[in-house]
Amino acid sequence: MNGLTDGVRQFQSEVYPAMRERFSELAGGQAPPTLFVTCSDSRVDPSLITQQGPGELFVLRNAGNFVTPYGTDGGVDSAVEYAVAVLKVERVVVCGHAGCGAVGGALAPDKLDAVPAVQKWVGHARAAVDATAHLAGDERLPAAVASNVGHQIENLRGHPCVAAALEAGSLELVGWVYDIASGGVDAVDSGGGVA
Model-level pTM? Predict the structure, then answer.
């Protein structure tokens, strides 16, 4: 806990004073241009990876960076709807990452018997995992991670507010896979292929 408390103190004494004007602006509201959907994994820091400051990313995080089909998860639905319909974000980035445990869990769900909620949740990667069934060994997880990003982009298209914004030409959907070891970011198309 001391590390967190020390961090808050450092923020209050060093960071906040240097950014006081920006935080004063943000106190009146937010207008981020990007909804950033990514994994809960502690090694993935959206603001650090993209070098965006406070107020520039509206972040939706969950294990596996899933955008569940519309109507199946109120938390995901409401975050997407708020970002697109209320905040009017210009883009949605779905960012998976190398070595994703949620996608790995979907590849071997029998290993998750002790954590049934996790086992159920990673079922949202089932289509992505099935799309990589022809691969084996070390090739499969990276391909499934990219495939998962593509599937989540397709799920986004099924959200009514996203469909309307896409039709109006006011929204862009972007897929990425972040490599923790190298810092690399690869673009992924909606079919799950690395561009």
Answer: 0.95
Is residue 43 annotated as part of the catalytic site, yes or no?
yes
Structure tokens that stand for 34 in this block: 């990007």
Q: Which one from 41, 77, 140, 161 is the annotated catalytic residue?
A: 41
What's the pLDDT tens digit per position in 84-123? 999 999 999 999 999 999 999 999 999 999 999 999 999 9
> Looking at 108-164, which runs of residues are DSSP E strands?
none
Give CA angle at 128 (181, 167), nearest 5°: 100
CATH superfamily placement of domain 31-188: Carbonic anhydrase (3.40.1050.10)
Catalytic option among 77, 95, 100, 140: 100
Q: Environment class of residue 179 by beta-carbon count within 10 Å: exposed (0-12), middle (13-18) or buried (19+)?
A: middle
